[in-house]
Amino acid sequence: MFMCYYVWILLLLSYKRKCxxxxxxxxxxxxxxxxxxxxxxxxxxxxISELRMxxxxxxxxxxxxxxxxxxxxxxxxxxxxxxxxxLYTLSHHLKNRTIAGYFFRSGETISRHxxxxxxxxxxxxxxxxxxxxxxxxxxxxxxxxxxKNCLGALDGTHIKVTVPTRLKGRYxx
Length: 173
Hints:
Structural class: mainly alpha
């Protein structure tokens, strides 16, 4: 008799534990969708401050990644969340563990989707990056006429470089 009650109590506890796990899974899914909605759908302010681009640009990037690069969302993680986690990582320079906590995902999931999104963005380099063109021979613009056939940073950008002492004369700016 005592054994029968003991078995029933164990079954009841295991059923309760299973219900708690299901409830937790539902609660985490709701938190994920709420976080994503606040990040990319509610207004431009959090999207710009967290992802460093407005909602329209974010949607265009997601569409390009989907159509041109072939990036797809998974059963458990939509494409918008993959791209948002990728941009959040790049814009805040945070560790994988921090991003996983922010998006309520595991570190392995964040890492895997970051790498797939990075490869997809690299496929878009022909569409997103402009190849520099040399300054033509017959340039009449007074700012650029002395830099014929030059490529590079002529806009005042300075790059910190340490040159060996014997070569310093060649690299004066």
